[in-house]
Amino acid sequence: MTLWVFGYGSLLWNPGFEVAQTRRARLTGYHRSFCMRSVHHRGTAEDPGLVLALDAQPGASCDGLALAAQDDETEAVLAYLRERELVSSAYLERLVELETPDGALTALAYVIDPDHVQYAAHLTLEEQAQIIARAVGGRGPNTEYLWNTASHLAELGIPDAELQWLSERVRALAA
């Protein structure tokens, strides 16, 4: 059975595994949001950054990519993703139903735990921009994460008004 993974943030531009197949995909009931404080990859415990997470919201949807792992790499990909995404307990690993042009499929997704201390859905876009403009973590500047994700979404033809606004605002702050 093929392991499908839903990419909506950094998995779009840095999956970290060999992708056998991609499909445009939509996840309903969640939206893409900078609602997770990053204390490892894009910030520190002393100065957290922000990363994207899937935040449950009735009536919402998130467009991204369904990424298929090579069939003989399923266990290795799963181990890699768990090490990468579950570095703290802020993400919850879930099987979700995606809509694709080729029909529905079940995929692995990492969604935010709204009860976790790293959950930060209350921040305004301006507050998000101020944090992203200055934070740096083990995988580099928070700005890089934002700009790579925004540019890949644009290349894929997936509009995201919030990420576009944040990208422009953070560029102005960084100038």
TrEMBL record:
Its EC number is 4.3.2.7. Coiled coil: none annotated. InterPro entries: ChaC, GGCT-like, GGCT-like_sf. It comes from the Bacteria. One of its GO terms (molecular function) is glutathione specific gamma-glutamylcyclotransferase activity. GO terms for cellular component: cytoplasm. Keywords: Lyase. One of its GO terms (biological process) is glutathione catabolic process. This is glutathione-specific gamma-glutamylcyclotransferase. It comes from Roseivivax jejudonensis.
